[in-house]
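Protein data sheet
==================
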Amino acid sequence: MSRVRSRYTNLGVVLITAGVFFAAFAEFILEYTPLTASGIAAVILGIVSISLARTLPNISIDAGEILFSAGLDNIQALIEELGLGPQAIYLPTSITKGNARALIPTQEASTNFKNPFRVQNRLLVQFSQNSDDLGILVATPGSAALSFGSIPPSSFGTDLEDTLTMTLVGSLDLARTVSVSRDANLLNVTLSGVTFTPKPHPANDIIGTPLASIAATIAAEVLDNPITVTMERSQRTNHIIQLQIIELPD
């Protein structure tokens, strides 16, 4: 990535330098306005090129996938070692004390949220007044999107579809459009023009794909309710995610 960034920067410097001299020569020597405009255009292109260099990620996509795969392997190892089975529950930060996390209950847990605790920021937690309601809190791709500022804080408490669009389309460039429909406690999220194809992994059965994880994290935060991923399917460049809202008592 550093080589690509350097090429953009070098190109920008060359365009700006050449554009300034060309515009000055055309304006004061030739006194020909159209050529002056061409020089100014070259300066603008140079500024754009330097700006593009600053937007490139610090690590390559391949390196990011390696790190991401290692994280999923660790989550899968915990799931198998502790006998975790039910679907992960994405919790809003009002319950997790400011850290976006997904709760994976033990198979024996009732996943009863009628009297939820504000869980501690630790690995193994008790999440209700029932002492048997135990699970682990894990960071997910949605957690990373929230902590890295990909989701504007001002968007919370507003329309879910708008927030998903700002994040998945605007900030992360993972899809072209996002649409959300709601039927009672079910949310149907449709991503069209998806630019990221999730790779199969056993952990996806528990926490969902990265696309579903980000969607569930945002939904939990915007709606201030726990969320689970109940279904996912891909259709060419479209990805459909079904989320279930776990209503909390007033």
User: Anything to note?
Assistant: The beta strands are 89-91, 101-105, 124-126, 134-138, 177-183, 186-192, 227-235, 238-245. The chain is about 45% helix and 20% strand.
